What does this fold into?
Amino acid sequence: MTPHWQDWPSQVLAALREGVAIPAHPLALDGDRKLDTRRQRALTRYYLDAGAGGLAVGVHTTQFAIREAGLFEPVLELAMRSAAEWTRAPQIMIAGLVGRTAQAVKEAQVARALGYHAGLLSLAALKGASEDELIARTLRIKGGLLGHWSVWVKRAVELLERIHAAVAKNEVSAELLALDAQVTDCNAAIFDAVNDFHGVIAGCHEILRRQGLLEGIWCLDSSETLGAGQKQEIDRVCAAYPHLNDDAFVRANLQRWLA
It folds into this structure.
């Protein structure tokens, strides 16, 4: 299935070069750790209505274990179909690719057949590989992804717009500079930095659970949950930086996304 906006490669490429917010799409599971299609679709709708310029699916935040669970292609297809049904605006669709070369190529072929524009390649499977092996796999790193923007996306989009405006004027306000430390503080809490990132995915899920987008914080791996003291840290940053959350936006639209 190829969505209508796949016919607009020039607009997609232009948006990517300009710089847009592309959330890392989490995996919505029910209490039995099975795919919750309704809430998975709701997350996609939330990101698009928040102003995201695309979606990154099958990446770390989506949980690499979707491959062993047989969910890689179904989850990528659901995101593509949900986006195409929800908006006519062109979206940049990025597929996460993992594994040794043969697996990564196979995943890239699946993503391309579904209409994805690009792949975000994880090199975790090549730990210990030689430089020649790494070069033969990907010539140059050309971008990055901040997974904690799978939450509070409306604010992330607005922040990026402010940054674009500051760059255009060649001036950065003290207020904008102050957000650096605030966002870093939030990232540390949501990603559970103090516990060596044990609750990195569960932290994102916890924010989405509090907003009602997810039913729980379940991961495919039952050992992946909040780290010690992480809930309190999330409480703290939520209270300290209310201007960085988009709770009101989610509350106003939640039932429409879940419909």
